[in-house]
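ok, trying the design again with the full structure, not the truncated one.
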């Protein structure tokens, strides 16, 4: 197990190097540059030259890339062109918001496991057909449309939930970790915590709708495949109760493909949900990177994409390690 982890971590080096090179070239292939985006109508040749000199953009591309590698290896992701703040500081502010939203969305999407399991156990019946229809709708409906629909129904019409942000603008409390749920609990005021939860509900449902539908379909297919295996028939022949067979033999073995999908979806959610964050004005990684693209903010794009890629690879490493815990027959070495 240790050798597997070390080998996978060492593979991060060429992966991140290759990704950093591609991102570096892609960003500089974009039309315009940070100087033009920052200065706007005030862009003069002298002002543009000064900004490019300040950020080292007037150097040859190989020199720029080498400087970028040296600073990144030292843990410095650069300074934002627009805010003049270190990219690492902005990451510390933005990424917790994305983590909270992604984990809440994934928690909601895990409802797809029991839904898919129940559908498989009632194969060909009304429950199974209803689950297929709902999962197709969940996969097909655009996220931004669902988000707007949820806002209209539950925020505008019913007034049950807020429409935007992470907390009511009238509430002022310290958030040193930028995990608002943790910081709200730390205050001891449950009204603040409940307000943070209410702001999280609609974005989490909108973001988790597609993963829920995918997980439900994968679970249904996996359970249908596993419950006809020989070891399941043997377990039933031994006189084990249907509950024991379903939990210890059917569901446990069906969890392998489900775990893969959950890992992939979690990595995607942590990379930032642009549409959901935009509709709900959620200050996470998605909106941060979109603003960086619009402003040609090279340091933010380079640092943000590299960080997101690192998170995605680590999540998939965690999924691989989970295989051995779910099914002892599968061991990594």
């Amino acid at each position: 197990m240790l050798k597997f982890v070390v080998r996978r971590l060492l593979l991060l080096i060429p992966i991140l190097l290759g990704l950093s090179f591609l991102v570096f070239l892609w960003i500089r292939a974009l039309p315009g540059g940070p100087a033009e985006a920052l200065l706007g109508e005030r862009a003069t040749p002298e002002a543009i030259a000064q900004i490019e000199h300040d950020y080292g953009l007037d150097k040859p591309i190989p020199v720029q890339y080498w400087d970028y590698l040296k600073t990144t290896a030292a843990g410095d992701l650069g300074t934002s062109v627009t805010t003049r703040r270190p990219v690492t500081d902005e990451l510390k502010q933005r990424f917790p918001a994305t983590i909270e939203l992604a984990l809440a969305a994934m928690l909601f999407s895990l409802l797809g496991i029991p839904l898919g399991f129940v559908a498989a156990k009632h194969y060909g019946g009304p429950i199974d057909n209803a689950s297929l229809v709902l999962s197709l709708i969940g996969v097909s409906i655009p996220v931004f449309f669902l988000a707007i629909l949820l806002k209209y129904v539950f925020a505008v019409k019913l007034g049950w939930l807020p429409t935007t942000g992470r907390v009511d603008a009238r509430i002022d409390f310290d958030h040193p970790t930028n995990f608002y749920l943790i910081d709200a609990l730390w205050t001891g005021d449950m009204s603040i915590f409940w307000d943070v939860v209410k702001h999280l509900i609609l974005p989490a449902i909108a973001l988790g709708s597609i993963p829920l539908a995918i997980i439900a379909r994968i679970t249904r297919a996996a359970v249908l495949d596993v419950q006809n295996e020989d070891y399941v028939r043997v377990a039933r022949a031994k006189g084990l109760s249907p509950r024991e067979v379903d939990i210890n033999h059917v569901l446990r073995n069906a969890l392998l493909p489900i775990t893969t999908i959950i890992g992939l979806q979690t990595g995607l959610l942590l990379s930032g949900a642009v549409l959901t964050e935009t509709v709900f004005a959620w200050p996470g990684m998605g909106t941060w990177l979109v603003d960086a693209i619009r402003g040609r903010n090279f340091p933010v794009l380079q640092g943000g994409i590299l960080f997101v890629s690192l998170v995605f690879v680590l999540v998939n490493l965690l999924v691989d390690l989970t295989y051995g815990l779910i099914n002892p027959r599968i061991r990594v070495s």
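Keeping the full-length input from now on. The first helix runs from residue 2 to 29.
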